Amino acid sequence: MNNDLSYGDDYKYIPATSIESGTGKEILPDLYSHTVQIVNISLVGHPNTNEFVLVDAGMPHSANEIISVIEERFGAGSQPKAIILTHGHFDHVGAIIELVQRWSVPVYAHELEMPFLTGKTSYPEPDPTVEGGMISKMSPMFPINPINLGDHVKPLPEDGSVPHLPGFRWIHTPGHSPGHVSLFREEDKALIAGDAFVTVKQEYLYKVLTQEQEISGPPRYLTTDWPAARESVKKLEALKPSVAITGHGLPMTGGLLTDSLRKLVEEFDRIAIPAHGKYVDKSSK
Ligand SMILES: [Zn+2]
Ligand SMILES: [Zn+2]
């Protein structure tokens, strides 16, 4: 037990799940996505090697599930070279302390996400008033207090490279959180988008349950900077990704992805921004 590692004092199990929970998909030979309750983790690397990284760290109390997914794909006793975080929200760092303690691997995140990962700053309170369904209504129970990874977490390299993922670069895609990043591989235009946009209307429990595929902006209840979120989606659309794994919802590929992203950019106000909410003001529209 390493005493300088801790979750926030509001850390807890969140009783929300989808029909995809506990299932995984190989999207590309070296890109695997697995759903933990309502959030996706990704494993990047060929299963016949021991060179892989884990992107994001699931929901609270999901460490055993993540470890068995990894051991099933890479073999017993396997561990990633590093954990890369798209951002530090509770549903992306839910098992990280147990994982870091087990593997002693470094964690990388954007510089601007550090205060939320080193015990300094809480995330802003979720806004349950954004129109939307049950997940929005549940959002006041979501943990927002900072976890503390101490010196296990390091800033991503300034040159845009991603440690242990040659071929990928990180792209700053703020709005949903200040230091949110997406990961992009030019060679095959593979994108790990985190919550910069998602493929399910995350606010609605029944849509999350059934995982009905529908492009959406970042989950509304936790997004605080809508103008930045819009610019981030534009940035990602301009890359013309061929496949996208998002933090929530099923992976999207090909023409559906291209068309959906274009539509999201063109109709960002209608599709993404809530009509009302405490982080929405006239300047966002
Ligand atoms: Zn998030
Ligand atoms: Zn999320």
What does this structure look like?
The protein is an alpha/beta fold and 285 residues long. The chain has one domain (24-284): 4-Layer Sandwich (Metallo-beta-lactamase, Chain A). Helices cover 23% and strands 17% of the residues. The protein has eight helices and twelve strands. The protein has helices at residues 63-74, 96-103, 114-117, 134-138, 205-210, 226-238, 254-266, 268-271; strands spanning 24-28, 31-36, 39-44, 53-55, 83-84, 107-109, 153-155, 168-172, 181-185, 190-194, 243-246, 252-253. The strands form two sheets. Strands 1-2-3-4-5-6-7 form a seven-stranded mixed beta sheet, with helices on one face. It has a five-stranded mixed beta sheet with strand order 8-9-10-11-12. Helix 6 runs antiparallel to helix 7 (254-266). It is globular and about 50 Å long. The structure holds zinc ion (2 copies). Residues 39, 89, 91-92, 195, 219, 247-248 line the site of one zinc ion.
